[in-house]
Design goal:
This protein is mainly α and about 210 residues long. The protein is built from nine helices and no strands. It has two domains: about 50 residues, Arc Repressor Mutant, subunit A, CATH 1.10.10.60; about 140 residues, Tetracycline Repressor, domain 2, CATH 1.10.357. Helices cover about 75% and strands about 0% of the residues. The chain starts with 6 loop residues before the first helix and ends with a helix.
Amino acid sequence: MFRKATKGQETRERLLAIAETSVLAKGFAATSIEEVIAEAGITKSGFFYHFSDKNALAHEMLQRYVAANDEIFEELFGRGAELADDPLQSFLIGLKLLAETMADLPNGHPGCLIASVCYQERLFDHTVRQLTADSVHKWNAFFRARIDAIAAAHPPAEPVDLDQLAGMMSCIVDGGIIMSKTLGDPSILPKQILLFRSYVKLLFQP
């Protein structure tokens, strides 16, 4: 049985959602506690009941963001594993589903909180900076595990650093988000993911 969220939990979630939208639009430095409070319709003491300061807000916002991304990756690549036994075909399906998910976003991907922290890392303490690093390591490991399975079944056609290949996904996604937003073309990100898919297919296809 699911428990209904309490009013306090709902307020906390609303604060995190408002803050995330603002940070993705204009960065952490330009997002003030006052504007988050105003949009949420609560008092300053109400905000500080949930978060001791802006750094604490950032830490929990990042945890929420990372968990959401983890869920997306697990769902899409898990679906690929259900549809194909071969690790290469499974991975290619997962990448196709990821590209389709990004293409279905009406206004394109809103941005990356991890990148936002990196751009303004001096605003945060060690725990927030470490969380961003840990999340990237985790995603790299997620893709490296799948690439290892592919390489074991299908040796690559050319010598390749599998760590760097796994890390390409984060580089492509963040780079695609930046280029999509800069050029006002939401289709760039899914196209970049599909290009990575083509590269993987050419590299490992028997």
